[in-house]
Design brief:
5-stranded mixed beta sheet; 535 residues; 5-stranded antiparallel beta sheet; single chain; alpha+beta; 15% strand; 3 domains; Heat Shock Protein 90; Beta-Lactamase; Helix Hairpins
């Protein structure tokens, strides 16, 4: 459940990111500003930290140099006085070293006798109480101090001073050499606590990062308001264009001011006015055309019915007429039938154009519907010597359809296949899945070119007008079939190749209102018994 919620949240976030120009602009501006300000902040933080450390180090070295001179002076003065007391000299040198340092309250010291010195350790080593010389003063630093050249030199090292609460403070240890009369070399180490410098750096860094964060938020807020001023009119234009596309031709964008946005609004409104006039004019012409076709079709029905009745009387008595008159009677009978079909198709197309078509939906087994359509064209297929085979492997064949319209589509596809199949077998495939049912009519006749496939569903268009047809088509059958399929929310598609035949595939949703995502059949299907079919 958590994984599902995470996926749903991520999908909504991606959808919001892709759909909101304002969000993308503000987010990109904030991210780039954060990177820039963060880079500047890091540089300034490092620079300030280095400057503070360098300043504190220079101060410590200067103080250590003064302390070394002061301590050495005390030892030299003790040597010149009568009654040399080295322990007293050590105490005086220690006090002089601490007093000469810049910050005596925060400075610790240690005077240690160097290793490998002859004689007794007199005076004894002196250290600030609580200073662990072994932990703070490294052997590496002591080696550098002992191995210094003849001229006085200072050596330093960064260390950490343990606190009573278990933490540590940053510090600098500065070491130098002292010459003690009759006792040899001693090492003077001054330990400078840098906790105050660290506190100063922490305060500066916190202030700096707070300022950077405030700057980024300010940039984001400014970007949001600027983008809102720009995206708002664009969003309004998009919503208005959607309403125009939905048929609300009277909507317009408010025109305010004389800036670029106002110019866009005026141009858009001018375009909308022009479109409204053109669409209204075309709609009026379309209504006149539809009314004309419908009226003409209805008006022709009465005289056509009279002509058909008279023609039937003549056709029934054609055996008593001379041969030429009998042939004329047969032609009249055939053309009247074709005229009736054409009139019926024109009325059907006028209903589609007027949007006055209603479906009578009911659950229907499409396999049985295909069988009925095959039986309806059985006489035509036998006259052509064409064998029609049905392949239905099984599945979800029941679907909510208007059986009369689907039967009309199938009969039309079968009649076309018989006309163009050149007597070769025709295979009808029916397959289904949980959401869709597909029917494919495959023939192996003359086929069509790519240009012919592009126009095969056009009204009154024929692939080969000079070709002899057995069904007396009107040129509207496939156009009506396409409209019937679209009315069901389905697809009617075609595949064809010259010399290889054609295949029309009808895909319908099993439940009314369900959107199709695919077809259960390939186009064209791959038959398992194709060689036997063509034999």
């Amino acid at each position: 459940m958590r994984e599902f919620s995470w996926r749903a949240w991520r999908r909504r976030a991606v959808q919001l990111w892709l759909s909101s120009l304002q969000l993308r602009t503000v987010a990109i501006a904030v991210i780039l500003s954060a990177l820039a300000v963060g880079g500047i902040g890091i540089y300034m933080s490092l620079s300030i930290g280095n400057n503070l450390f360098d300043s504190r180090l220079a101060q410590a070295l200067s103080a250590s140099e003064r302390s070394t001179v002061a301590a050495q002076t005390r030892f030299d003065a003790a040597q010149q006085s009568t009654g040399l007391d080295l322990d007293l000299a050590m105490g005086n040198a220690s006090r002089a070293a601490v007093q000469s340092s810049a910050t005596p309250a925060g400075t610790r010291f240690a005077i240690l006798r160097s290793a490998d010195q002859t004689g007794a350790r007199v005076p004894v080593d002196v250290t600030t109480p609580g200073l662990d010389t072994d932990a703070v003063i490294s052997q590496e630093l002591r080696d550098d101090v002992v191995n210094a050249d003849d001229e006085p030199r200072l050596y330093w090292q960064s260390v950490s001073l343990p606190r009573e609460d278990g933490g540590v403070d940053p510090a600098i240890v500065v070491g130098s050499l002292l010459e003690v009369p009759t006792s040899g070399q001693y090492e003077l180490y001054l330990v400078y606590n840098l906790s105050d410098t660290e506190d100063t750096l922490s305060f500066v860094q916190s202030t700096l990062w707070l300022g950077c964060l405030s700057l980024v938020l300010l940039i984001g807020a400014v970007t949001y308001f600027v983008v809102r001023l720009i995206v708002g009119p664009v969003k309004l234009a998009a919503e208005t264009s959607q309403k125009l596309a939905a048929g609300q031709l009277e909507v317009r964008i408010p025109e305010k001011g004389d800036d670029v946005i106002a110019t866009l609004a005026r141009s858009f409104n001018g375009m909308a006015d022009s479109l409204q006039r053109q669409i209204t004019r075309l709609a009026s012409l379309s209504q006149v055309q539809q009314r004309f076709v419908s009226d003409v079709s209805h008006e022709l029905r009465t005289p056509l019915t009279t002509i058909r009745l008279a023609g039937d009387v003549l056709y029934d008595q054609r055996d008593t007429f001379p041969p030429a008159t009998a042939r004329t009677t047969e032609l009249l009978h055939t053309q009247v039938q074709r005229f009736e079909l054409l009139l019926a198709d024109l009325l059907e197309m006028s209903r589609y154009d007027a949007g006055a078509v209603d479906l009578e939906m009911e659950p229907t087994n499409l396999v049985r519907l295909v069988e009925e359509a095959i039986d309806a064209v059985a006489t035509l297929s036998e006259s052509k010597g064409t064998h029609i085979r049905l392949e239905a492997p099984g599945g979800y064949f029941a679907a909510e359809v208007d059986a009369r319209r689907i039967r009309r589509i199938l009969q039309n596809l079968l009649a076309n296949a018989i006309d163009h199949g050149e007597g070769k077998p025709i295979v009808v495939y029916v397959d289904s899945d949980e959401t869709a049912v597909a029917i494919a009519v495959r023939d192996y006749g003359v086929g069509m070119t790519a240009a012919a496939m592009d126009r095969v569903f056009d009204r009154f268009w024929r692939a080969d007008p000079s070709r002899q047809r057995s069904t007396g088509g009107t040129g509207l059958g496939l156009a009506i079939s396409l409209e019937d399929a679209a009315l069901h929310g389905g697809w009617l598609e075609v595949w064809s190749a010259p010399g290889e035949g054609s295949c029309f595939r009808l895909t319908l949703p099993r439940l009314r209102g369900t959107a199709l995502s695919g077809s259960p059949l390939e186009l064209p299907p791959e038959p398992s018994l194709r060689e036997e079919t063509l034999a």
